[in-house]
Amino acid sequence: MNEQRRQSFINFRADSEPGAAPDPMAWADICREETWQGRWVALDDCAYDDAGEATAGLVVDYDHNLADLCARLSAERRKRCSVVFCPPAESAA
Fold first, then answer.
1. pTM over 0.85
2. Where are the domains of the chain?
């Protein structure tokens, strides 16, 4: 993914309605999105269950490489993100 596309993705859904905050997505919905399957996903504005696992959030970035993702988050000073692995879809046998 080129840097220009990644920068626009980091602002994912933020421009849907000027001045409106985007809605967090449920983790189950995130896992169904082909874009994020098999990748590390950074979530902001998370909701958590009793076990402390993210159940919903705003996708702010993603990558196959965890180190690259964390480097970008650090460079953008995103310190409150939860980074979770979105498992790949099960292949049909």
1. no
2. 3-86
